[in-house]
Amino acid sequence: MKKILLSLLMLTALICKGQNLVPNPSFEQYDTCPTFNGQINLVISWETPSTNLMGISGTPDYYNHCANLSSYVCIPNNWGGIQQAYNGVAYTGITLRQGTNFREYIEVQLDSTLTKSCYHFEMYVNLADTCRSTTNSIGVYFSDTAITGINNSLPLPFIPQINNNAGFITDTANWTLISGDYNASGSENFMIIGNFNDDANSSFLTVNPTGQNITYFYIDDVSLARCNVGFIEINKKE
Questions:
Q1: What is the pTM of this model?
Q2: Domains and CATH numbers, the chain
Q3: What are the beta bridge partners of residue 64?
Q4: Contact criterion met (CB below 8 Å) for 62 and 30
Q5: Banded pLDDT at 14 (limits 50, 70, 90)
Q6: Among 59, 180, 191, 214, which is 20 to 30 Å from 155 by CA?
Q7: Left if phi > 0, otherwise alpha if psi is -120 to 50, otherwise beta: which for 13?
């Protein structure tokens, strides 16, 4: 009976944890191996909402172990430093500041439309070695429709429903968990990750005075699932 009870509790835990609604959450699935920076379009299910008029700016980077070292997007050695993936052999990266109000975002259509319920979000981030500064300004915005065709690299004019709760991301060796809960209205179908604040309303911290004038995070293992509802109490005699 104890074994049966343990099995039931383990099954209940899995059910309570819920299904991850983020497709390709660790960026493992791709069309072709990346060969240079700015190729988020190679990642299955993921895209970016904004580029400049020439289509070559505001483009997040895709890193994979399959890439050649000379491509600058190899794992673990790439243009930003040395970093293994948190999960699998791939991750992506976005600029949270460069120059004045330059931003990059990644966007994904969820596997199903959110219902009017609580959802728990998680992702792991890492500050690239080469960065001069870091930030605590990174968030998640949920939208009913896809945000596409933004022909600039400025901060998107949306208020994220989930904001970073981990403070300044200063670790360049290990991955840092960012998480939060969101009470959905019941019609959201897309999710965007990035810094939605302009420079004046973002907080930055210098961590490497000789580094490049950029704030850049690697991102891996993104998840969104129904909030835990607790265990089912089982009262059975042996």
A1: 0.88
A2: 19-226 (2.60.120.260)
A3: 90
A4: yes
A5: very low
A6: 180
A7: alpha
